[in-house]
Design a protein that fits this description.
By secondary structure, this protein is of the alpha/beta class. Helix content is about 40%, strand content about 10%. It contains nine helices and seven strands; from the N terminus they run H-E-H-E-H-E-H-E-H-E-H-E-H-H-E-H. About 45% of the residues are buried. A seven-stranded parallel beta sheet has the order 1-2-3-4-5-6-7. Strand 3 (about 70-75), helix 4 and strand 4 form a beta-alpha-beta unit. The chain binds phosphoenolpyruvate and manganese (II) ion. The site of manganese (II) ion has 4 residues, from loops.
């Protein structure tokens, strides 16, 4: 975690994500280190001076996670977990709300309304690809949804090109496409050595990959009036 945090900080990341409670499709896959994972992530984030976000999968974890994270992520599998949405709606922590894999844009925006109407207005929408007939990529990145939501709501929208494609070579081009259609940011999987990652190594970028990604995004970042280290 510390090695990866140092890499992403060096090349210009503005936040750190780490999964401590992981919603794995198979119960036999690595499930996360839970509280210990939160501690590791908080330590790594503080070392490099970045805010951090981690996925919440259970309303009963709000109090525990509140002390460690700067933002909650609601993953695709929990986009319509209304008890969870109401619980985090009662906090003031930023929420990254990911689109469910088979959710319409309307369902996504109504899920955001659950958080908003409970009192938490700090919501970032995340397009992470949807399920279609197409099997070559892990999911189908719906960039039309990004442009649509940017046009229809005031909420910031980010894109997750890692889960959207499942293929590390596609992360850079789809990130540039996301920036071109108005996304406010990306959330991307990075590992200092993807070959030994306990989760999603095939779609994780190493240091070189992340450096190249950020280099390719530089014109968009500058156009947005931001500066990028390196
Ligand atoms: C994640 O972001 O770690 C994740 C599991 O992605 P998703 O919920 O989009 O499948
Ligand atoms: Mn993942």
């Amino acid at each position: 975690m510390e090695k990866t945090a140092a890499i992403v900080k060096q090349y210009g990341a503005t936040g750190l994500r780490g999964g401590a409670f992981k919603p794995r499709t198979s119960p036999y896959s690595f499930q996360g280190l839970e509280k210990q994972g939160l501690e590791l992530m908080r330590t790594a984030a503080d070392q490099v001076g970045l805010p951090c976000v981690s996925e919440i999968i259970d309303p009963n974890h709000v109090n525990l996670m509140h002390d460690y994270v700067d933002a909650f992520q609601v993953g695709a599998r929990n986009m319509q977990n209304y008890g969870l949405l109401k619980a985090i709606g009662q906090t003031q922590k930023t929420v990254i709300l990911k689109r469910g894999m088979s959710a319409t844009i309307e369902e996504l925006l109504l899920a955001a309304e659950y958080i908003y109407s409970a009192g938490n207005k700090n919501i970032i929408i995340c397009e992470r690809g949807i399920r279609t007939f197409e099997k070559a990529l892990r999911n189908t990145l719906d960039l039309g949804a990004v442009a649509y939501i940017k046009n229809k709501s005031h909420l910031p929208v980010i894109v997750d090109p890692s889960h959207a494609t499942g293929i590390r070579e596609l992360i850079s081009p789809m990130s540039r496409a996301a920036a071109a259609c108005g996304a406010d940011g990306i959330i991307v999987e990075v590992h200092y050595e993807p070959e030994i990652a306990l989760s999603d190594g095939k779609q994780s970028l190493n240091e070189e990959g992340f450096k190249n990604l950020m280099r390719g995004l530089k014109p968009f970042i500058q156009a947005a009036g931001k500066t990028l280290a390196q």
